Amino acid sequence: MFELSQDHEDFRKVVRDFAEREVEPHVAQWDKDHHFPTDLVPKMGDLGLFGLVVPEEFGGSLDPEEGGAFTSLCVAIEELGRVDQSIGITLSAGVGLGINPILTYGNDEQKQQFLPDLVAGRALAGFGLTEPDAGSDAGATRTKAARDGDEWVVDGAKAFITNSGTDITSVVTVTARTGTDSNGNAEISAIMIPSGTPGFTVEPAYDKLGWHISDTHGLTFQNCRVPEGNLLGEQGQGFKQFLKTLDDGRIAISALAVGMAQAMLELSTDYAKTRTAFGRPIGSNQGVSFQVADLAVSVEAARLLTYKAAWLKDEMEAGRRSLKEVKQAASIAKLYSSEAAVTATRIAVQIFGGNGFMEEYPVARFYRDGKILEIGEGTSEVQRMLIARHLGLGA
After folding, report:
1. What is the set of domains in the chain, with CATH numbers?
2. Acyl-CoA dehydrogenase/oxidase C-terminal domain: from which residue to which, for each copy (predicted)?
3. What is the pLDDT of residues 46-71, one digit of tens each?
4. Which of 104, 188, 295, 361 is the most exposed place for a label (fewest CB within 10 A)?
């Protein structure tokens, strides 16, 4: 059965120290200013966070014989998310949506061109899937890419793309229609578009409910030309590629949710012990103590589901588990953990009372950040649909 190794626990301490030292003192101001801390990314790279699942030849630390690399990534995402969700999603998206598609489907030239800088934190990459009219219904993609000689000409728009407009963003991989298959269905391919390419416009940053520190933009492409060699993987395989990318991303989002729930448990426990009312700590009241106890249960359950899914992912990479098992575990973990985290923020704000409604207390920031966990990387409704299908139910 799965368990976190001592190496994983030691690594957790390293990342927690980094998060508490380099992130926690600044996040309230960064959040207030909607500031993306570009200078933090190379520090995360120096710690090796972007290279956990990347082979050494591209600057990473992956040892295929050792195993547990994806679990290590989830530990890092959890610990960053425990301090701030925006920084956690910067790592999650930077690896899962930026690095992984290139690592998994790129040719040697593409890997050598982009991966070393991405692993080192000198650059970030994004993944353009969602569109204004095509989110969960990715088959409705309207962005098109047509061959013109030895170039792809891309036209269309993407929405809600993470790490797409920073000063160090080097490339965004986008899904686009490149034709139709033998059944008349849209042929979807993935194409890499470097930052600064003529015709590639990064729209102004969104004014979001939460994740104020995270970089998120809409993208537009008008007669945007890139070399034919920027096709990522095989033509027409983009749909399958992003489905696998989302499977991994769901486990990563689950780890991010665990970090949030853990933070709510710690903050609520401390507040219940120190905040007094009617001459005694509010935690001595059963109404409060039971809520904190429920938080402890949900954190434990979410963590177990998350790391079971991460373990299965690592086991699959070693050839000992199936993709079907990973997909089901990923959906279960993502569904439960994201909803548990959102509930945890509501409980924490309630325990903090009026103070929980004040921005000077971190629970307010977590409350704003939480809702997106039930939406991004596949909504809760999509996860229920996938879980039901696995059981032979539903359409």
Report:
1. 6-123 (1.10.540.10), 126-235 (2.40.110.10), 239-390 (1.20.140.10)
2. 236-391
3. 999 999 999 999 999 998 878 899 99
4. 104
